[in-house]
Amino acid sequence: MSEKLIVRVTGVTKDFDLGKIVVKVLKGIDLEIETGKYVSIMGPSGSGKSTLFNMIGGLDKPTQGKVFIDEVDIAQLDAYELAWLRCRKIGYIFQTFNLIPVMTALENVTLPMTFAGTPNEAAVHRGMKLLSQVGLEGRHGHKPAELSGGQQQRVAVARALANNPSIILADEPTGNLDLSTGEEIISLLKQLSQEQGTTVISATHDFKMLNVSDQVIWIRDGRVDKIQERAELEIHTGGMSS
Amino acid sequence: MRRLIVLPWKKSVEIAYKSIRARFFRSLVTTLTLVLAVSFLSFSQVSIDIADKMLATGDPSLCQMLMRCGYDILPGDTSLAASPKQRWIITLSLLVCVVGIINAQLMSVTERFREIGTMKCLGALDRFIVRLFVMEAAMQGFAGASFGAVLGGISAFLAALFRFGPDTISLFPWQAIFVSVSTAFVTGIGLSLLGVLYPAIIAARMQPVEAMRVEQ
Ligand SMILES: Nc1ncnc2c1ncn2[C@@H]1O[C@H](COP(=O)(O)OP(=O)(O)O)[C@@H](O)[C@H]1O
Ligand SMILES: [Mg+2]
């Protein structure tokens, strides 16, 4: 079971056509991610992490190459199936939290369940449970503006978990948080991946992530620089300041 | 495994209502444009209805009164359809109103790019987004058009009362007035929906990657 691949990326390139020039952001990425792993995509700012993240999440299409989720080529999906994938299979966490500002914490968490056809009562019940799971008991009636950054990101984590996705995709989830709040979110994600066997893929340049990762994929200038497993990491952590 | 993505109507209404409330002042300004245009339409039509009825009595003193009040009546006229100039002004005001609504709705779409992108990441289909915007416009349209139509009707009634005197009340063609007010109301809702069409399509076409964009 643990050998099963959940994400497979083959020969993915991405060019952005800016009219006069074409920016080559991804220059051929091959990746395999196993079910249940906590994977970090590391690399300096501008190396193409977010672009790769968008490809894996089905938010953008590669110029060349293919992305498979559960061995399904997502380029073959129609709009309806793609929406289903985003709704049920993948939970997204953003650097900027991206809660719907006019909705309360609870309503934000239940929205994906509504899309998935969950009856209202069941959705509210599960939403409350998820909110207390991320440590926000009693905050369900608050609007995002009434919550701190860390609390908003917790709501976002609960929302990402709403439909029991197989994959959680997080792009710089700690990017807008201070050190200790960032650590809290990281350990929350780690705990969830351990307890529920959810695959967590997070793009980041936050070295705090290294400690919890099962695998680290280093991206540099649009290519995979190296892939390190947990065992290798522990040996090298001491000199990891580059 | 059924691949089902839904947004129940009740939920759409709830979300649209919340969005309006959250941007109450903006919505109010948009709605006010509609109120003005619709009440002008309603006022003009109802005024013509009343004048028409007075003319139809064939009473020379009433005709005199109408002419004194600025109506151009030629001998033999039996109805006082709006003059081309008047029609032109009404059309123009409705046009300005639609352009105003398009402008306001476009602003609202731009402001909510991230929100729309996020909803798409959560699995919203294009038509959910269109539906939310249309629903908002329908609510604004309903409020603005009903208020405007009634306001215009009442103003026309009061104006007629003032110009022609209270003796003429018995002459007022209530049925025609009701039809004119209703027409203005329906037109108002139509304008509101017309104004949101293009912005809603822009919103629905938006790619979910927009949600990810971090402004530096
Ligand atoms: N939509 C776009 N159009 C043009 N260039 C883009 C676009 N998105 C990203 N880029 C460019 O791609 C490069 C990598 O961006 P990104 O994937 O966001 O990097 P990272 O997330 O690793 O910081 C950057 O140089 C950026 O300017
Ligand atoms: Mg990035």
Biggest β-sheet of chain B, characterized?
Answer: none
- N-to-C span of chain B: 42 Å
Number of beta-strand segments of chain A:
10
Uncertain segments of chain B are none
The count of β-strands of chain B is 0
Overall number of structural domains of chain B:
1
* Amount of helix of chain A: 25-40%
What is the number of independent domains of chain A?
1
Give the C-alpha Rg of chain B. Answer: 23 Å
Uncertain segments of chain A are none
CATH topology name of chain A, in short, is: Rossmann fold
- Strand percentage of chain B: under 5%
Average of per-residue pLDDT values of chain A: 91
Order of helices and strands of chain A: EEEHEEHEHHHEHEEEH
The average pLDDT value of chain B, as a whole number, equals 89
Count of DSSP-assigned helices of chain A: 7
**Shape estimate of chain B:** elongated
User: How does CATH name the architecture of chain A?
Assistant: 3-Layer(aba) Sandwich
Task: Describe the model.
The complex is a heterodimer of chains A (242) and B (216). Chain A has 242 residues and is an alpha/beta fold. Helices cover 34% and strands 28% of the residues of chain A. Chain A has helices at 49-56, 79-89, 105-115, 120-133, 149-161, 179-196, 230-236; strands spanning 5-17, 22-34, 38-42, 64-69, 72-73, 90-93, 167-171, 199-204, 215-220, 223-229. In chain A, the strands form two sheets. A six-stranded mixed sheet of chain A has the order 6-7-8-3-9-10, sandwiched between helices. Chain A has a four-stranded antiparallel sheet with strand order 2-1-4-5, with helices on one face. Chain A starts with a strand and ends in a 6-residue tail after the last helix. Chain B is an all-alpha fold and 216 residues long. Chain B has one domain (10-213). Chain B is 76% helix and 0% strand. Chain B contains seven helices and no strands. Chain B has helices spanning 9-22, 24-56, 60-68, 84-111, 113-121, 126-164, 174-205. Chain B is elongated and about 75 Å long. The mean pLDDT of chain B is 89. Chain A binds chain B through residues 50, 53-54, 57, 59-60, 79-81, 83-84, 86-88, 92, 94-96, 98-103, 111-112, 114-117, 159, 171, 175, and chain B through 3-8, 11, 15, 18-19, 21-22, 114-115, 117-126, 128, 207-209, 211-212, 214. Adenosine-5'-diphosphate is lined by residues 16, 18, 23, 25, 43, 45-51 of chain A.
